[in-house]
Amino acid sequence: MSTIAAISTAQAAGGIGIVRISGENALSVANQIFKTVSDIDLKTLSGYRAAFGHVIFDGKPIDEGIATVFRAPKSYTGEDVVEISCHGGLYITKQVLRAALQNGARPAEAGEFTKRAFLNGKLDLTKAEAVMQLISAQGAQSSAAALGVLEGSLSREITTVSNRLKSVCAALAAWVDYPDEEIDDLSDDSIRDVLNRSIAVLQNLLSRFDSGQAVLAGVDTAIVGKPNVGKSTLMNRFVGAEKSIVTDIAGTTRDIVEETATVGNVVLRLSDTAGLRETGDAVEKIGVARARKKVENAVLVLAVFDGSAPLTAEDRDLIALCNGKKSVAVVNKTDKVCTIEPELLDTAFNKVVYISAKENQGIDALESAIEETLGTADFDPSAATLMNERQFACCTAALDSLSEAKNALEIGLTRDAIEVSMDAAIEHLDVLTGERATESVVNEIFSQFCVGK
Ligand code: GDP
Q1: Ligand 1 centroid vs 345 CA: distance in angstroms?
Q2: Which domains does the chain have, with CATH numbers?
Q3: What is the CB neighbour count within 10 angstroms for residue 360?
Q4: pLDDT category, 274, cuts 50, 70, 90?
Q5: What is the pLDDT of residues 349-368, one digit of tens each?
Q6: Which atom of ligand 1 is nearest to the CA of 245?
Q7: Residue 403 contacts by C-beta under 8 Å, 6 or more apart in sequence?
Q8: Tens of pLDDT, residues 282-314
Q9: Nearest 5°: phi and psi at 35?
Q10: How far is CA 35 from the centre of its chain?
């Protein structure tokens, strides 16, 4: 495979920048652009050795740094790798990369180092996807979950199920293919036991998907309510900055303001929307339509009500809009006399929280309610977690096939029919781990990585 090079650290001023070179000629490329102070040929270094020296470009030293040598297969990619640590910064790292490219390396594509690691059997697809998740993690729980998957929590769980199914299928196939041999048929009970255990594992993984996604990818959250109930004030409480415009004139938040805030383990992508009310103002009308859309698209809705006034028709519209959504009713302005009737809210929402956004009261209770609604309060990052829609789809398809197999067993279909469905389940699980993923799936996954990873 060709030798590739890329800047692997962030492209910004920094203490250290790393240019990574990987492939058959990594050592000779590095040796041409890096002269060690003790004049050692990098090609003679064994793995995990480092040498201090200068990076040479166009015959001149351009920086001093350290070259670290990794020998195949004991490297990130499984190939020979040299990492040149130079001074961080946009110019220097680019010059070091140029030197490598002028001396026989080609620019690495997005995710190509990790793709090579996958193709060389260093990690499976779930682990490769965890690398990407780890890089983009925004909190302790999401990075812990990504690290768990990188270290094999998900592959172990999937492979255990898959291996169990494979051994049943092998026994079924032997019995079907060699009817004259004295091979014991598996009892219905033993097949049922394996199916039930496998189904339980997959169901458990799928049931944790939403809370896992909330922790890993953040949650699109809409703050909605009629004008002047305190949406912008609440948003500013979360974000801690005066981003939305707060005024006494109803309808001032005309557009959607987006911000992120961390609530417990979760990053909320908050949008403060135009108030929900019928309006003659053309600009505001567009805003109201967008707010409705935002509720439809949001994963979590914070429906804000003014506690110091009775519910209005607009409030009732909002309550109806939240039906079937993950939502929390937020009754604001508790510093004033409470005149709202809570009965309707109590029946329509799982959680009703009383706050004063202005006085900063009740925000902790609101945060707890959000975590409980999202199921992230007791999220266990050490448990196997499906990291994305692709894995979720594979797991769902495998579960469907296992349910078919179970059904075939229960209604007394032939061993053949049971085996076909179990084989289908195994295939979906193998696609999940990458053991059987097609080239286009693999290319698609790695194209989402950044260059240098
Ligand atoms: P929005 O139109 O829903 O975004 O409402 P704003 O956040 O702009 O607030 C409208 C008005 O209500 C402003 O005058 C706020 O200061 C006031 N307000 C917001 N929250 C509270 C609260 O908890 N208590 C009281 N008394 N007033 C509040």
Answers
A1: 20
A2: 4-108 (3.30.1360.120), 130-208+385-447 (1.20.120.430), 215-374 (3.40.50.300)
A3: 11
A4: low
A5: 989 999 999 999 999 999 99
A6: 8
A7: 199
A8: 555 555 666 677 788 899 999 999 999 999 988
A9: -105, 120
A10: 41
**Ligand 1 mean position, distance from CA 403 (Å):** 52
Contact assessment for residue 112 and residue 105, using Cβ atoms and an 8 Å cutoff? no
Neighbouring-strand partners of residue 92: none
Rounded distance from Cα 357 to ligand 1 centre (Å): 7
Ligand 1, pocket residues at CB < 6 Å: 225, 227-233, 246-248, 253, 275, 332-333, 335-336, 356-359
**Is 352:329 a contact under the CB 8 Å cutoff?**
yes
Burial 385-411 (b: 16+ CB within 10 A, else e): bbbbebbbebbbbbbebbbbbbebbee
- Element spanning 347, H or E: helix 342-348
Q: Whole-angstrom Cα distance, residue 450 to residue 8?
A: 9
How is residue 109 annotated by DSSP?
Answer: P
For ligand 1, the distance from its centroid to the CA atom of residue 298, given in whole angstroms, is 23
Calculate ∠ Cα 25-29-34, nearest 5°.
145
**Structural contact between residues 269 and 257, judged by C-beta atoms closer than 8 angstroms:** no
Tokens 């993923």 — which residue? 437
| CA–CA gap between residue 127 and residue 49 (Å, rounded) | 27
User: Which ligand 1 atom is nearest residue 234's CA?
Assistant: 7
| CA–CA distance, 192 with 194 (Å, rounded to integer) | 6
Instruction: Please answer whether residues 327 and 301 qualify as being in contact, where contact means their C-beta atoms are separated by less than 8 angstroms.
Output: yes
Give the model's pLDDT for residue 113: 94
Q: Which two tokens stand for residue 400?
A: 């469907």
With a CB cutoff of 8 Å and minimum separation 6, the contacts of 273 are 222, 223, 224, 231, 253, 256, 287, 290, 291, 294
Output the CA 299–ligand 1 centroid distance in Å: 25
State which of 226, 234, 236, 246 you would mutate to test the pocket of ligand 1, scoring each by most atoms of that ligand within 8 A of its C-beta.
246
This prediction's pTM: 0.78
Q: How many CB atoms lie within 10 A of CB 147?
A: 17
Calculate Rg over the CA atoms of the chain: 29
